[in-house]
## 1
Amino acid sequence: MTPSAPGQAGSVRRLLQRVAATAVVLGLLVWVLRKAWLEARTIDWASMQVRPGLIAISVLLMVAALFWQGVLWVLMMRGLGYRLPMIA
């Protein structure tokens, strides 16, 4: 049996940490989705009133949030030293 390289133990540990972090995040996602599903079953959907103005506001809010996320991403990448062209 050959002895393992010194750097190999660190890479295995990093791989295990990534797998564990992924498992934790997926577990939390499943928990949140299950909780939302169970809560949605208690709503009386037939008597709910739909207001188009609120739907439009929520769509505009999502578009603004996506734009803001893009701006912050570009600023972060530039702060890290990358010079990426902006898509106009």
## 2
Amino acid sequence: MGAWAYCSHPGCEQGLSKPTGREAIEGEQYCADGHRNHASMTRDEYVVELSERVEELESEVATLSVLLARVAAALTFTPAPEDS
């Protein structure tokens, strides 16, 4: 997998990983050689990405809740009536 971005320092070709939340919020990140770069993702882009991920997780939780309810219903034991 390639780099998310590359260092902007002249002569440096270090790849930059996807910025962390802190780097995106602060607006700068560093390459492996210690050169300061503008973060390759803005705060707004980071917030949008986070909100999309939250939506995905909420959808997964809803799906798992339905499946769990079905499993619980299938496992509910109802004893047979006793003969008199």
## 3
Amino acid sequence: MKIRTAAVSGVICAVTLALAGQAAPAGAASSADTCSQAVAQTKQDLQNVGAPTSATNWQAVRADAQRFLDSHPWGGSGTAALKRDIAELDRLCAP
């Protein structure tokens, strides 16, 4: 019974991650024009993949996005969106 429960939990987790990865369209491009827009977009994309953040400054939001990417190396549309978000944060917010 324990093995069956673990298998069901693993399947549920895999389905949840697959659905979270589909939350952001695969070809969606970031349209941020300002640092604050890039931060808002990144926070939304983190929410979409099931990793909401309460961070308020761009460095902390970027760090949360990078941590998510580091812990999800297999990719997907959600991670692709976060990679774009990090590039936008670097472009718009970094000194």
